[in-house]
Amino acid sequence: MAATHGFRQKFFIVLAFVILQTGIGLPAARAALNPANFTTDLNQLVISGNTLLATMENVTLSSFTMASQLTSLQNSVQVYLDSVGTVYRTVAGSVDNTTMSLTDDMLVPLQTLVAITASLAQSAAALMTRMVVLAPATSLSTLSASLDAMLRLSSDIGVMADRILEMGSMILIMADNIGIMADRILATQVIQGDNIKIVVDASLETQKNILMLFSMFAL
After folding, report:
1. Rounded mean pLDDT of 183-212?
2. Using H for helix, E for strand and C for coil, what is the string for 177-211?
3. Ramachandran angles phi, psi of 100, nearest 5°
4. Mean pLDDT of 5-18
5. Residue pair 38/104 in contact by the 8 Å Cβ criterion
6. What is the pLDDT averaged over residues 65-87?
7. pLDDT tens digits for 22-40?
8. Which of 9, 130, 135, 199 counts the highest number of beta carbons within 10 A?
9. Is the dihedral of CA 78, 79, 84, 85 positive or negative?
10. CA–CA distance, 117 with 50 (Å, rounded to integer)
């Protein structure tokens, strides 16, 4: 009996040593959200988003190059979505253990990000309209690749909008001054709601045109 007890004691000592050395079996630490860092991250997303929007608005499609143009643009949108996702995961990982005060420095860039997403969706819809015009003069292989890229691009913008809205909701869960900021929060939500409608309408128009071209050219 004593030998068994001694073995168990040694086993648990060794197991504890392994866990401490490797981290095996330990749950991931949920770091508290740093409001200053979060605000900085939001402002950086605004800067990057405006840069992406300017790039998209300056694209002039042609029948010969639209596939490479849209693929490059979709890659840029994916990179930006990844950046949004990084900030989103930081917030999501902090919801259970963070209490903080909302400020305009947080709400304004969140509001701006939704507006940028709406503008991206509208710009994508404008590019899609241009593709419809160019389609008859475009080779089937180029058109097919272009539509695939546009479909992914439109989907990424939709996911982007969802992530930004979810971040706003999670920030409200953490907030300890909702009453004081109630008017500001309400105004922000109204503006976000209007912009999300723009994203949805533009995305639906884009997808409708994509389906139309797939049907017309049997791609």
Report:
1. 92
2. CCCCCHHHHHHHHHHHHHHHHHHHHHHHHHHHHHH
3. -155, 165
4. 48
5. no
6. 97
7. 444 444 456 789 999 999 9
8. 199
9. positive
10. 10
**DSSP-derived 3-state class of residue 28:** coil
Q: What is the mean pLDDT of residues 61-81?
A: 97
Query: Both ends of the chain: CA-CA distance in Å?
Result: 76
What letter would DSSP give residue 151?
A: H
What is the sign of the dihedral through the CA atoms of 27, 169, 110 and 78? positive
Q: What is the token pair recorded at 121?
A: 């969706």
Q: Are 118 and 202 in contact (CB under 8 A)?
A: yes
Quote the CA–CA distance of 49 and 55 in Å, as a whole number: 10
Average pLDDT rounded to a whole number, residues 110-124: 96
- Residue corresponding to tokens 């990982």: 93
Residue range 131-154: average pLDDT?
A: 95
pLDDT value, residue 22: 46
